């Protein structure tokens, strides 16, 4: 079995990492790039398959050459075997459509072809949720989206999944589909390792990955438009029907309360803070 | 029915007993799965702790794990002293001879470092058999079929069947209790230990204790410094820290209504330890542990069917006088459990039965439950006898004798005698009265000062690491009346009267003119010692895998 996770590098929007300028624009150069958080669920789903049914996990992403570190993050954290970076100047500024064509071509070039392709739900920067389903449209496989839990029947080669319907936590659908297939994991996706043998295997994979991750370059393949036999007119900016007419800065949240800044070295200021707080502390 | 996996052997707990069992099983090519509830072995474990390798034992930990002493222990203890204390008067005796009796070596250890090292070795060994070590898994019960134990159930895993189940899940073994082989009923069957690990950052242990490089010292303390509670204090040197603590009979803690963290502070701040405790006092960790008194509670037949109890789970903790040996017995018993599996296969017998046979052949029961103590207990552990011996010692005649030169030699001999230690009664006389009188009549004024300010209980709790299982408390108070459970407010090492941040708190509920005294419980600060399981009316279980307190030193 070959499991492939599609991923993307996005700005690290966690507090303390992300930086904006005074106009509310993202300071891209000062903000680290990380694996799209929703893709972690896709990686976990693929790892669970590998633990329970053996096989190989590959991670594929499109982006500039330094996005290889995003793929490496996937190897280190989710024990992936191989990494595929689709990187070419011709791919730059792609919208979700051009990205999907590129990824679909990359998937078809893999040997062996994937049995299950996993994608996360929405990227933290684009938030369209288009890329996974559009990639699937290109390769014409069955797709299950919003998956929160899945099993695989080896004998019948069937995926059995529970999925949220319209994101409603009270409405859960159980569906089946044959492989090869695309699975889009929901942020509610949960892995389950109830067998000791599965946990032992996961532990073994972690140990094996440590050695592989130290030499991750050896396990990374980079493909450009020539290797993928893609016409530059159909990928990247030229292949993107989306037109960005303008960008609005992120509005600052309205302040509802007045704030007084006090530095810890300001003794008088700190004393005032204490006096303000004492009535709320229930003490004398 | 949920699918069941099967392993030839399942070992519950990866402390020294579990590790030894797993190593022995793996050595015998037995497919072995080890289940440990901590995030890492040692994260749930606390000991004083000195680890012995006895000359008379067929297995020691360095036999089973080459490189153990170089990589996992702290210092070889080559000096051992007993300090009798009364006020600032101290009379010390060198009891290294007793310490070295039947001892190949003895090292101080810190459990997180030691057990996590063992876990790695055990995993390497058991993986070769088709098993391995899994952490974050709490075994919460036994699997039964036709009144026979056939496996274990787990909070985090589907049930697992096994041909042998080694319960090395510690002093509060839920498996031993489910099997009906141990209980939490009687406080007099347990010791209560509290410990602080203290950093020695700039000054070397050797310099402060006047020790040769790499060597360590152990000091014990008894007398009037613990408010009359039966027990004593200890101070052991680690690589670059000190383990300082107290061990008391739990029934005495309850009777005297003392708070054990305060008794620890009595030792930490006493002038007798002033020369060793750094003025810049940095307490790295506060911990506590219940330990079985093997003389009373060691199970005489700790193997039944497929089940074998090992170490603290079987009450295998030898505490006779100043001799405190637990981990070494767990190691020996664990290794013998592995041998028992093979013998059981060869002879077609139950592994539990084969294990008991192995223990008997080793002579472990004689060490854990010495016959001499039975006599001493029958004759000496009663009120009139204690009143008589205490009266004699504190009388003019007793004190006159104590001042004689031959009595100093006799007392020194008695304190170094393994024979005497094995028949010491658990009364106030040897723990409190005798050391106090010895200090008063033979001792000298301590010239050290001690300005240490110990941490508050609030800070001690605050500095521990917890992963709280929110909404799933692992202890329930069944009877919250003061009469049934009030003792926990004092005996719980993270609770105290007039302290709102601990586990147990006193509550006064007014109903009309009547004020009812009850207790309330918040398990968040629990350090899982199990004390309240004995002294209060509770339904007690361990937190689920990876949850609860995580010790860094242990």
Describe what this molecule looks like in 3D.
The complex is a heterodimer of chains A (284) and B (554). The longest helix of chain A is centred in the C-terminal third of the chain and has 19 residues, at 196-214. Chain A has one domain: Rossmann fold (3-Layer(aba) Sandwich), CATH 3.40.50.620. Chain A contains six helices and eleven strands. By secondary structure, chain A is of the alpha/beta class. The model of chain A has no long low-confidence stretch (mean pLDDT 90). In chain B, helix 11 (327-347) crosses helix 12 (351-362). The two termini of chain B are 40 Å apart. Chain B is of the alpha+beta class. Classes of the chains: A alpha/beta (284), B alpha+beta (554). Chains A and B meet through helix 5 of A and loops of B.
Radius of gyration of chain B: 23 Å
Largest sheet of chain B: 8 strands, mixed
Instruction: Tell me the CATH superfamily of chain A.
Output: HUPs
Order of helices and strands of chain A: EEEHEHEHEHEEEEHEH
Distance between the termini of chain B: 40 Å
Provide the β-strand percentage band of chain B. Answer: 25-35%
Helix count of chain B? Answer: 23
- Average pLDDT of chain B: 94
Could you give the count of β-strands of chain B? 26
Q: Report the count of strand segments of chain A.
A: 11
| CATH C-level of chain A | Alpha Beta
Proportion of residues in helical segments of chain A: 25-40%
Q: How far from one another are the termini of chain A?
A: 68 Å
